[in-house]
Write a structure and sequence with these properties.
By secondary structure, the protein is an alpha/beta fold. Helix content is 39%, strand content 15%. The chain has eleven helices and nine strands. β3, α4 and β4 form a beta-alpha-beta unit. The longest helix has 16 residues. The model has no long low-confidence stretch (mean pLDDT 91).
């Protein structure tokens, strides 16, 4: 019998459950705003960023970058400790591309995250913005301070044609290269995926799950294609140049993704969100938890669990070869 209250017989592995099993108690991620930018915004690759990315670079709910990192962490620790009774934390450098800085600034930002209650550091960035120098430095930090390091890579899709439409500025090969180097250094790897991109089909969804599994991702963050104010996508949406999939389509694709995903990969989220005031359309104006419950209910009804179809065909072929 599954006695883990964080898992509670869910059809997929949750991040909360994974953290509880590893650290033996509740652990919370703390969002940190470094005030950075992205090569897709500053003119190095492009300007304006990815078509879905807003002015805050996914940092919609972080504190101001004018507050020192140490103080951001202290404020969040105090709030979370009181409200959620957690004593261990993982600072998460969240906004934009947090390895897209000079090496001295990178070192300073990482050191600012260290503390007696910190068990890990998570760093969000692009696949084409990670140097071996940074990875080597993170290895030193991890060893000397006994903290786990997780790199979070924005990929969104394995379809290179869609990556171009999204104005990502990198291709799938950049992601594979970064993922291999991250895992070679012994770090945790989390990949961000948008599961209902209108230019993708079910094969792309399956390929995404299989690729993340083969590359030994530890975690994945999934979300729908929401429309944030002030983005290129918002203009496309208002001009009716793009048709978004509906909530049932998202749930079907999310289930397809989960069933082809390795059962060892924990879901940090299965549906994302941004504040209502920042969006034109987020999750079809349905609460994120309601979409999540709809997905779970359908998986239970159809007797599906994470990983049930993972590399099933390949295993059949290997079995016949033996």
């Amino acid at each position: 019998m599954n006695k883990d209250p964080y898992q509670n017989h869910l059809p997929y592995l949750t991040y909360a459950s994974w953290l509880k099993r590893k650290y033996g108690q509740k652990v919370y991620k703390i969002p940190v705003n470094t005030g950075g930018t992205c090569p897709n915004r500053d003119g190095t690759l492009s300007r304006g960023g990815c078509i879905f990315c807003g002015a805050k670079g996914a940092g919609n709910e972080t504190l101001s970058a004018t507050i020192p990192i140490e103080d951001q962490i202290k404020q969040n620790e105090a709030y979370i400790s009181k409200r959620y009774h957690a004593n261990l934390f993982i600072p998460f450098l969240q906004d934009f591309s947090n390895t897209y800085v000079d090496f001295e600034t990178f070192q300073k930002n990482i050191k600012a995250c260290l503390g007696k209650n910190v068990v890990g550091i998570a760093i969000s960035t692009r696949p084409d913005c990670i140097s071996n120098q940074q990875l080597d430095y993170l290895s030193e930090i991890s060893t000397q301070n006994h903290v786990d390091i997780c790199l979070e890579l924005g990929l969104q899709t394995t379809n290179s044609h869609t990556l171009i439409k999204l104005n990502r500025g990198h291709l799938l090969s950049d992601y594979v290269d970064a993922a291999l180097r991250i895992k070679a250094h012994g770090f945790q790897l989390c990949t961000h995926m948008i599961l209902d991109l209108p230019w993708d089909d079910e094969v792309d969804v399956i390929e995404g799950a299989e690729l993340l599994s083969v590359l030994k991702n530890d975690f994945v963050k999934c979300h729908a294609l929401y429309v944030e104010r002030g983005t290129v996508l918002a203009k496309m949406y208002q001009q009716k140049k793009i048709d978004l999939l509906n909530v049932d389509d998202y749930i079907d694709r999310a289930i397809l993704f989960l069933t082809h995903l390795s059962p060892d990969i924990a879901l940090q989220r299965i549906i994302g969100r941004i504040p209502e005031q920042d969006s034109i359309q987020t999750n079809w104006h349905i609460s994120w938890w309601k979409v999540r419950e709809m997905l779970i209910d359908k998986m239970r009804k159809d007797h599906l669990v994470q990983g049930i179809a993972f590399r099933k065909n390949s295993k059949k072929v290997i079995g016949k070869m033996r």
